[in-house]
Amino acid sequence: MGTFLGRADCRPGAPREDFQAEYERAARLLRERLGEPLPEGGVKPDDADQCLVWERGGSWVILLMGTEWISYGAYDQVAIEVRPRI
Is the pLDDT of residue 26 over 70? Predict the structure, then answer.
């Protein structure tokens, strides 16, 4: 699959365009691997300003962009979460 997101990068001075570009890059990689995401609606994490969701086996694969609360909201994040389908 090539290069994939595997570690956190913190770039406090990065412009918003770079942040959006990382989200779009991750979305392309996930589409290549998992196909098209599900239509909007249904699964959306509370902390996501923007997200795409795929169903894979018994799990949701969620690409999200939003506030990273572990840092008490000091940073925004682009993250991939795998959650059990409930």
Answer: yes
